[in-house]
Amino acid sequence: MHKITGGVTAPKGFLAGGIHCGVRANQTKKDLAIIYSQKNCAAAAVYTQNKVFGAPITVTKNNLANGMAQALVCNSGNANTCNADGIEKAEAMCVLTANALGLAPEDILVASTGVIGQILPLEPIEKGIRELSPLLTATGGEDAARAIMTTDTKKKEEAYEISIGGKIVTIGAMAKGSGMIHPNMATMLGFLTTDCAITTPMLQKALKLAVDDTFNMVSVDGDTSTNDMVSIMANAMAENPIIDQDGSDFDAFASVVKEICTSMSKQIAGDGEGATKLIECNVTGAPSIPLAKSIAKTIITSSLTKTAMFGADANWGRVLCAIGYTEGDFSVDGIYVDMASAKGKIVVCENGAGVPFDEDTAKNILLEEEVQINVNLNQGNGTATAWGCDLTYDYVKINGDYRT
Amino acid sequence: MHKITGGVTAPKGFLAGGIHCGVRANQTKKDLAIIYSQKNCAAAAVYTQNKVFGAPITVTKNNLANGMAQALVCNSGNANTCNADGIEKAEAMCVLTANALGLAPEDILVASTGVIGQILPLEPIEKGIRELSPLLTATGGEDAARAIMTTDTKKKEEAYEISIGGKIVTIGAMAKGSGMIHPNMATMLGFLTTDCAITTPMLQKALKLAVDDTFNMVSVDGDTSTNDMVSIMANAMAENPIIDQDGSDFDAFASVVKEICTSMSKQIAGDGEGATKLIECNVTGAPSIPLAKSIAKTIITSSLTKTAMFGADANWGRVLCAIGYTEGDFSVDGIYVDMASAKGKIVVCENGAGVPFDEDTAKNILLEEEVQINVNLNQGNGTATAWGCDLTYDYVKINGDYRT
Questions:
Q1: Range A278-400 has CATH code 3.40.50.970
Q2: Buried b / exposed e across A264-279, counting CB within 10 Å, b at 16+?
Q3: Which residues in chain A (277-336) have CB-CB distances under 8 A to chain B?
Q4: How far apart are CA B91 and CA B94, in angstroms?
Q5: Where in chain B are all domains bearing CATH 3.60.70.12?
Q6: How many beta-carbon pairs under 8 angstroms link A with B?
Q7: ipTM confidence score
Q8: Which residues from B are below 8 Å from A52, CB to CB?
Q9: CATH code of the region B2-270
Q10: Start-end of CATH 3.10.20.340 domains in chain A
Q11: pLDDT tens for residues B87-119?
Q12: Do B303 and A221 touch (CB under 8 A)?
C-alpha cells in the first residue's frame, strides 16, 4: 500500500464539496459537506455508544438498514441532538439531499456536529444543499473536509492505494474531532470512501476491526460525544474481484482501512483542543489485549499526565498512578516505563520503582511535538497503543466559553 | 449537633502540631504534622483502591490490625510511593514518632503526600519529629492542618459537638486534597479525632458509611491518588456509655461523622487545584443509588462540563452528554436538568430536550462561587450528591510543572 494525495474524492467515482450555508455565524467557516458516489455503494458505519445520541445517528442507522448508500450530508455548527424535532430535521436533510442528487432518501447518510441542544435551523441547510449539490467535484474532498471542522485547527484527510486482485483500489478518508473525544465504540466523525468491490458484511467487518484499534484508542478529554460516527462507502468502481469472504484480498483491504484510520486517529489526537503535542502510549507485557487497551487509554486520559506532558515534565509517578487506578486484575510490581521522542529516550521506572535520570535530557525529549510513553507490565503478551494530547491553557479557553 | 471552632484538637485529650522540617524546600511551608491522644484510641481507616499505593498505606494497615492507635504522623512534600525503600522509611517514621512520644510503633498511623517516586529523605523528618513532639498542644490542630497541605490554598479543619448518652461528645477533623482527586474507596487525606467511647468495629462502620457518601463523591480531576486515606481515632474521654452496637447512640455518632466528612469534602472540592468554584451535582429519580452516584460523579468529572462552569456557560448539552456515557442501564428520555446558585435557578432541560432560557440570567447564576447542577432522571428513587470544581487555566498551570 502507499499513500497518495487527496481524501474522500481520491477513489474513483466520488465527488464532494463543502460550503458555508449559515448554520455557523462566522461566514469564513464552511459548515455543510456532501459526499456523492456516481454508483450506489455498499456501506457500513459504527456509532457512539453514548445513551444520549444525536438524531442523525438514528436516521443514518435506519437508512443503512439495507447496507447501501450513495451520498452523505454533514453540517457543522449544530449537533441536532437533544432537540424534540431532531429526527424530523435529520430526515429532512436526507430528503433535501436525495432530491437535489436524484437519489432516494434511504441512500443518504446524515451527520451533524456542534453544539448540543439548540434547534437546528433548516433554512440555511436547505439553501446550502441546493447550492452545493451541482458544485460537487472530484477535487472537492478538501472543501468537504474543511466543512466538517468545529474547533479543529487542521483539516484531516488522507488517501491510500493498494493492489487487490490485480486492480488498483483506492481508499480515501476525512475526519473531524478535537474536543468531546473519548470514543467508546465509534468516535468523532470519520468518513471513508473507496472504489473497492466488497460486500456490506465484509466492509462492516473491516471497519469494525480498524476502529477498535484506532479511533476507539483516541482520547482528547475523556468525554464521549453524542454524535460519533465513522462510515465507509464502497462503490466497486475499482473493478477488483468482489471481496465477499475472508482471505488475502480481505486482509489487504482491512490493512489499508486500518492504516488510514490510524493516521486519522493520530491527526485527531494531535489536533486535540488546545493541544501542543501528540502523546502516544504503547503498553506491552499486559496479561491481555483488553487490559493493555484499558491501561493505555487510562494513561492518556489522566489529566495529571496530560498537564505534565504540557509542561514537558517527566513526572512518571502520575503515569504509575494512572496505571494503578485502571480497573482489572494485574500486578504493578514489575512495571517498566520510558518516555521517548525523536530526541531520544529516558528510562524512568523499572520494577515499579524510580530510576535516576537527567532532568534536562528528559525535558529536551518531552518538548517535542510527538512523544511516546512506553509501559511494559512484564506479565504477559497483551499490547495496545492509544493516542492523546496534552492538557493546556487553550483547552480551558476553548471550552470555557464555547457557545458564545 | 452543632459546629464549634477548632479541628483535630477540639475533642478532649488530643494534642497536635505542625512545623517545617525540610522535606519541602520552601521554608515558609509546614511539612510535618503529628496528632497525639493522651489515651490509647479505638481507630479505623479507609484507604485508596489504587493498585499502586504508597508505602505509608501498607504500614498503617499493619499497625491498625489490632484496631488501636494513639498518634498519627504525616509529612507533605513527598508521597513515599514507588520507592524501593518506601516501607522501611514509613516504618522508620513510626519508630521515630513512637520513641519521641513514649509509645509503641504499632500505635502510630503514618501518611505521606506529595511527589511520587522520589526517595523520602529521612533526616529532616527525624529532626522534625524530635523537635515537634514536645511542642504538641491542645490548640495545635490548626498548625497540623496547615502542615499536610500541598497545593491546597486553604487549610481544612472543622469540629462538631453532639450529645450522646448525656455526655458532650466532640469530633474534629482536618483534611488535605486539591489535585489527583477522584477517590475510589477512601480519598485524599482526612484525619478525624473524637473523644467518643466507641468500639473499633462500630467506629469503622461509622467511618465507612460516611466516606461512601462524602469523600468518595468528590472529584477534582478524575485521578485517584496512590496515598488516599481517611482515619479516625476515638479516645473515649467523653465518658459516654460505650457505643458497641447499632442504636440511637450509634446513629447520632454516625450522623456527626457524616456531617464533618461532608463539610471536609465540600472544602476539598471547592479548593480543587485552580478551582474558582464548587460544583455540587444532585441526582434524583435514578433507578438505584449506585447509578445515581455514578451519574453524579460522571457529571462533575466531565472536563467539558467543568470548563463550561469555569466560563459560567449554561452549556447543559455537556451535562446530558456526560449522563449519556455513564455506564449502566437507564433511560435518558425523561431527563430534567436545572442549574442553580444563591442567585436563583434556571431550568435548562425537560424530557431530554432543551428548554429556552435567558442567557444573562444563566450567566449571573453560574458566576457564583457555589453552583448546583440538579438532574432528575424521572425513573426511580435513587439519589446522590457529588462535589467537584471547575477546570481552569490555573489547574493547567499548577500541574504543568508541579515538580520544579
A1: no
A2: bbbbbbbbbbbbbbbb
A3: 301-304, 307-308, 310-311, 313, 315-318, 320-326, 330-332
A4: 5
A5: 2-270
A6: 210
A7: 0.73
A8: 320-321, 323-325, 332, 352
A9: 3.60.70.12
A10: 278-400
A11: 999 999 999 999 999 999 999 999 999 888 889
A12: yes
